[in-house]
Write a structure and sequence with these properties.
The protein has helices at about 5-15, 20-40, 55-65, 85-95, 110-115, 135-145, 170-180, 200-210, 230-240, 245-250, 260-275; strands at about 45-50, 70-75, 100-105, 120-125, 150-160, 215-225, 290-300. The chain is α/β, with parallel strands linked by helices. Helix 4 links the parallel strand 2 and strand 3 (about 100-105).
């Protein structure tokens, strides 16, 4: 069995230009912790959906030289900053793990419609399902995978709407607040579009199993993110800023007719502010909520 690189070594492969190790370390450590829960085997062929900047590096490390990662994302190579997707993925391809990864600019449906290879051992959804346009779009995607023969198992990691650490609770509340607001916005939408919970997933998989579709929850677990992961801080800072109140007013502009909806949105923001005030360092000290991981068996 080939020797795996350490997280510190992966960070050296990852960082370039203005990207600093201090921000990347908890990001790649979380990915490593989640993959351990999933139990991905060396030599596996993996399709990663919504790969983004290329955290697929950690998957490539685990599958070894006999495995391979096909990483897809619908965003164009010019998307993102200060390093865009194309630059990041090109940089990772030049690393020692580069031959184990192939990046594709495509959405899942388009990719699978033209795919003629053997079934993947795993299809991975790592914190990308909240980007889907609706919960029904998530259901449809998972349902199609259950009916098809593209993969043997699905692996899911998504925010858990719970926090083991008290200083991560502002993140939970901020995600709920943003979800409530963004679900009603036609424009200026954030990265929280379809915030579904572990309970939502489990109810869906239970229905699929009853209908004999071929999707069955095999195992689940909770991962506590390493301290310093920035997502909790970013979401909290977004909600506590005064400009967020303006977004609420923009969504519900009629003072009388929208009074109750506007008040509910204001109270959600106030809850985030109050929770962040109890965190050492305030909003900037907020940590990230727990991550739910699941292994979904197909064809059973």
């Amino acid at each position: 069995m080939a020797e795996m690189y350490t997280v510190d070594q992966l960070i050296e492969f990852y960082i370039q230009g203005p990207i600093k190790a201090v921000g990347v370390t908890p990001q790649l450590q979380l990915r490593s912790d989640v993959i351990k829960k999933w139990g991905i085997k060396a030599g596996s062929r993996v399709l990663e959906v919504g790969c983004g900047q290329g955290d697929s590096l950690v998957l490539a490390n685990v599958v070894g030289p006999e495995g391979h990662i096909d990483a897809i994302d619908p965003a164009p190579p010019t998307y993102g900053g200060p390093i865009n997707l194309g630059q990041s993925q090109s940089h990772l391809k030049s690393s020692p793990l580069g031959p184990r990864m192939t990046f594709h600019t495509a959405d899942l449906e388009a990719y699978l419609s033209s795919y003629t290879g053997p079934a993947y051992d795993y299809v991975v959804f790592f914190q990308c399902l909240w980007y889907f346009p609706s919960p029904s779009a998530i259901e449809a995607t998972l349902h199609r995978l259950g009916e098809g023969k593209a993969a043997k198992k699905l692996l899911i990691a998504e925010w858990a709407f719970q926090a083991t650490n008290l200083d991560a609770w502002p993140h939970v509340l901020a995600a709920l607040s943003v979800s409530n607001l963004e679900n009603r916005m036609e424009e200026d939408r954030s990265n929280i579009v379809s915030a579904v919970s572990p309970a939502w997933f489990k109810a869906f998989f239970a229905r699929e199993k009853e209908q004999d579709v071929g999707l069955s929850l095999e195992s689940e677990d909770i991962v506590v993110p390493p301290r310093g992961l920035k997502e909790g801080m970013w979401e909290t800072l977004d909600v506590v800023r005064e400009g967020y109140r303006e977004k609420i007013r923009k969504r519900w502009p009629r003072e009388k007719e929208d009074e109750r909806a506007r008040l509910a949105a204001d109270m959600m923001r106030d809850a985030v502010v109050a929770a962040a005030e109890r965190v050492e360092g305030g909003p900037k000290g907020t940590q990230s909520m727990d991550v739910w991981t699941a292994v979904i068996a197909l064809g059973t």
